[in-house]
UniProtKB/TrEMBL annotation:
Pfam families: Acetyltransf_1. The keyword Acyltransferase applies. This is N-acetyltransferase GCN5. Transmembrane segments: none annotated. Keywords: Acyltransferase, Transferase. The keyword Acyltransferase applies. It comes from the Bacteria. One of its GO terms (molecular function) is acyltransferase activity, transferring groups other than amino-acyl groups. Residues 15-159 form the N-acetyltransferase domain. The lineage of its organism: Bacteria, Pseudomonadati, Pseudomonadota, Betaproteobacteria, Burkholderiales.
């Protein structure tokens, strides 16, 4: 079980970072994840999908304010010839009410620290070309654009 990481904001309720550990918590994360991935429609299918991703090493770090999730960082440990050992950030999202509060930076920093602890050489993520605000955020966090991500849809019913 992961240790909660308290985050204190002046004048705000305490925010605690803790990895999601069960299906109840996965279900509680659905609405926040939909803010990043609006194509997600079915909470049950979301839980099944994340359970499958967890078998591949996916971890979902949640920012909890009281009993509500207000941010998420989904990531996995990987190895390849390009980056050697690295953490790939699949998902990083905070609720609209938490944007510009520093919570996204804190989630990313927690994942970065996990990468350092695991002796990773890199922290890697992708963002859409149309996501100018996200790109600016990542530049401010010290990430650099190193390439382009190409996609070819192969099945009509999948994104």
């Amino acid at each position: 079980m992961s240790q909660p990481l308290p985050l204190l904001e002046k004048g705000m309720p305490q925010i605690v970072l803790r990895h999601i550990e069960n299906d109840t918590e996965l279900a509680a994360s659905f609405a926040v994840m939909r803010e990043l991935r609006p194509h997600l429609q079915d909470p049950a299918a979301y839980i099944v999908r994340l359970a499958h991703q967890q078998t591949q090493g996916y971890r979902l770090l949640a920012a909890w304010q009281d009993d509500a999730i207000v941010g998420l960082a989904g990531y996995r440990l990987q190895d390849n010839l390009l980056y050697d050992r690295f953490i790939y950030v699949d998902d990083l999202v905070v609720t609209a009410s938490q944007q510009r509060s520093g919570l996204g930076e804190r989630l990313l920093q927690a994942v970065r620290q996990r990468a350092v602890d695991l002796q990773c050489r890199h922290l890697v993520l992708d963002t859409g070309l149309h996501m100018a605000l996200a790109q600016r955020f990542y530049f401010r966090q010290g990430l650099l654009a190193r390439g382009m991500h190409f996609v070819e849809p192969l099945l009509q019913d999948r994104t």
